[in-house]
């Protein structure tokens, strides 16, 4: 049943023997030149998001170097060691020279540099130190990550696309919204070119919300470019992991994203079940998309967001992430669990508290709250924290896996209701 979900062999065969990993997460947040509409997504502390770099520890091999920008909690590092036979080399620094020196001490061969997302600064860095790159065309990388390029590329190559329209002034925006309302769409999404995990877009769930957003835009801008798309009622939010090299396109994994009402990613179902015909169609469309991306000059990993609506209409190209994703980094760990566990899901929680808690404190409380058993377990795969003078914030990602659907669902429900930190709140 899992043959189409995880297939890492093409990546392993093409994977360089020595990799330098870096998770420069949220690199694309600065690419939108102007904030064209107010953000209604609760802002997250950047240091917490950056600490999701810890996920590199689950994909790196022992001979690799993982370049971290934030120190690891010692208790959490011991916890990760207990789950892996051997950890990679870890270099914690913001100084590129220190990283280069560390890499030279580890191996006489130059590494292949694999940042989360390639930028011109990292191309320059690789050239300076003689590091290899999977691909070095940063212009293609930026284009592939644009929601606007994605929309136009999908339309040009005949992929099924959701109802949508590019708008260049306030009147066009109003007309496009009214047309979508007239066609029965009660919810829309307004997008700028760049942004991930709910950033660079705003969900418009009512006419009042549209008036608020359009008024904000009209008072500040006469001309702009925005994409307004109808929100199709969704049965499944699929994600494909593609690996493209000079000779082939490979579908590494198909997972299902858990998305909240604001379009923000909150977790992944790594063991979804789909109708065979739908899966065959999806696989074919993803391989066709990969061929298109290769023709554009793109190589390496790409994550593709897709939806299946309530009428079982597949829209295969909603967004393209021309980079690694959180899903990518966990795939080797997921693959190791699949022979033993039927259900695998991830979630995260953010907690604020006036008290300071150790990793072992939080892990112990999770065990009490979630009540895992011999066949239904969890692993903490990111333990991020930000200690402030009057408030401590924790962002914790957990992987749940088990063989009883009801038990795993119960654990997920309990996790979603946790308010465990004294004097604190969860979000």
From TrEMBL:
One of its GO terms (molecular function) is ATP binding. PROSITE patterns: ATP_GRASP. SUPFAM superfamilies: Glutathione synthetase ATP-binding domain-like. Residues 151-350 form the ATP-grasp domain. Gene3D superfamilies: ATP-grasp fold, B domain. Keywords: ATP-binding, Nucleotide-binding. InterPro entries: ATP-grasp, ATP-grasp_PylC-type. It holds the Pfam family ATP-grasp_3. This is ATP-grasp domain-containing protein.
